[in-house]
Design brief:
The complex is a heterodimer of chains A (about 300) and B (about 375). Chain A is of the alpha/beta class. Helices cover about 55% and strands about 15% of the residues of chain A. The longest helix of chain A is centred in the C-terminal third of the chain and has 28 residues. Chain B is α/β, with parallel strands linked by helices and about 375 residues long. The chains are: A alpha/beta (about 300), B alpha/beta (about 375).
Amino acid sequence: MIESLLGRRLVIVTGKGGVGKSTVSAALALLAARSGKRVLVCEVNAQERVAPLLGAPPSGSEIREAIPRVFTVDVTPHDAMRQYGLMVLRFKTIYDAVFENRLVRYFLRVIPGLAELVMLGKILWEAKSEERGAPRWDLVIVDAPATGHAVQLLRVPQTLLDTVPAGPLRSDATWMQELLVDPVRTALAIVTLPEEMPVNEAIELDAQVRGLLGIPRAALFVNAMPETRFTHDEEARLAALASAPQPLGPAALAGRLQAIRAEQAHRQLARIRAALDLPMAVLPLLPLAAWGPEAVERIAAAIAAAPPEAEP
Amino acid sequence: MTGVRESVAARRIVVCVGSGGVGKTTVAAAIALERAVAGARALVCTIDPARRLANALGLTSLGNVETPVPAHKFAEAGLAPRGQLFAMMLDVKRTWDDLVTRHAPDPARRERILRNRLYQQMSSALAGSQEYMAMEKLYELATDRDYDLIVLDTPPTAHALDFLDAPERILDFLGNDTARALLAPAIGAGRLGLRLAQLGGGYIAKTLGRFTGQATLADLGEFLQGFQGMYDGFKERAAAVRALLARRDVGFVLVSSPSPVSIDEALAFHERLHAESMPVAGLVVNRVTPDLWNAAGPLPTAEELDGPLAAAGVQDGRFARRLALTLAEHQALAVAERQALERLLTRVSVPRAVVPRLETDVHDLAGLASLADRL
């Protein structure tokens, strides 16, 4: 699974808020860099998490190398607009004359989807651009916003194709959409937790990706999976022991809570496995208080260990 | 210190805010249930409830319709409400359509807007649209109906500010006179480009057209034209919503989990609400890992568990080792969460409730009632 994913030019990582998208993005970047690739990880107008997860300072809107061969950037509407504007208009003097005009800035701010378009445009441009006949990046990873906002972002090219007549916007939308739906160059990965709401949302997201976006899906990451530590018999025993005095009572209660959580997680894992026909990697719940390079290492190891053809 | 329950007891409107995945919907439903049981006519308006919770509230479909929670659901939960509980799910598109219908001067204008391509994209494509419509619906419910309590669950916003700024930003978009004048479909002038050239300085207009395409600007012009004359009605209403939110019988409830992301979000909300003089009624910290070890000494080793286990008739060294490990991991998490929450709890001094991670998802009225007891 990992080879197929990292063999693309563009990998989009998405899922509900708080499921670990940044951690998975950072781990994928780490694995790609270890196999010799030059990687760019893009966050989209976010509080930057990827560079800090790799133990580096946030890079802001300038591309910076966080660890060897892994570069990060936070794409913001303002900077993306500027870069995009410069690309379209070619000359900085024209850009300044036009884009620093207050009225024009107003238009750019209010035209629905324009901010998303320029941010996505910048990311996709990085993914497709070449220098001296070779790709500028071996792999671009997008740590996409949470589900609803990600769909909004990724839908912009198609929306423009549906609504905008011929013109510069349309021709940009055309190449962007071609790249997004190209199964050779692009893949989308969904991250979820083995809990009810995140699983519901992952199933809905998958339907939207297939129906609405048409972006090739390549992987499902089920993050923070608790291990099965106690048997059914032991769980029953724990319930009885939980009322014992210290130290056994608290230990049995902790054990019981763990067992219940693991059981629920397995139910949700089975649900999503049945619902989505995607290669799946199950990532462990880490007993770590602080999220940083160590967590990324361990998640990367779990991804690397996922079976190559984990089709259910 | 009084709890969140007491703090919201006197409010007519409660708005639950916080990042996604912290249990906002469940808290909103629990607050409404509690008051309904106590005798009020209470409504909970949700955005995107978990299926089982929706089922528990008797909600089967979207549609902006307030539905009474059926009596048998209460009976199943062993509850005898003295009041009534209603629930509804917000339909963003429908709320927009209702708003346009209400303000359109005539049927022709209404149809022109409802059929416009940009308008049809608006409910999904325009950032903040969901937030704006949640506010709009709240105002309608608060002024046109006779609920004793309305609890609003809010969309999971990308940024805390979106929620309060969205109406204004969208109105700014719909109502900008200069933009409308510039983009007005050229009546008589023949081509949009000409009109732009007359009004806005040809050089800039031409370059802008190069950037977006002239036809896009024309579409936008037609769209904005459609809203002409309705804008004042919209604006008045948005101002009324803001005034409503600052009233003393309104209370915002911040909902957070112990995760750093949701703590940041709750802090940002709190700061903003405070700056706007909007009343914060309480803080609910949800899904907290309970502290199981309140003894002063260190956590037990596996060997220290062997004795008590043997006394209870269990002799299994590996079982003891797994138990010791599980307790250690559990407590490490509990301590880390407590430290992360310190930041939130010291800076937000409002009535609060810390709710432990429950053993099962709340999926029926009995679960909601027991959550309400903890608030």
